[in-house]
Amino acid sequence: MRMHPAKLEAWGEAEFVATIMPESISWLHTVHHDALTNVRVAYSIGAGVESGKAANVLACRKTRTIHG
How many domains does the chain have? Predict the structure, then answer.
């Protein structure tokens, strides 16, 4: 499943979140980049869950970024 392009572009994270989301997750809550560990973390919540309910985070994917 791919995220909505407009939402991705707004965050500037299209290259990171375009393809990692599992089909059970339909809305990206936030993307955080940890400069210390060089890990980007995508917090996602399930379909139908309001974005403001942080306690309802259902998935967390991590991927290491590669700096040239």
Answer: 1
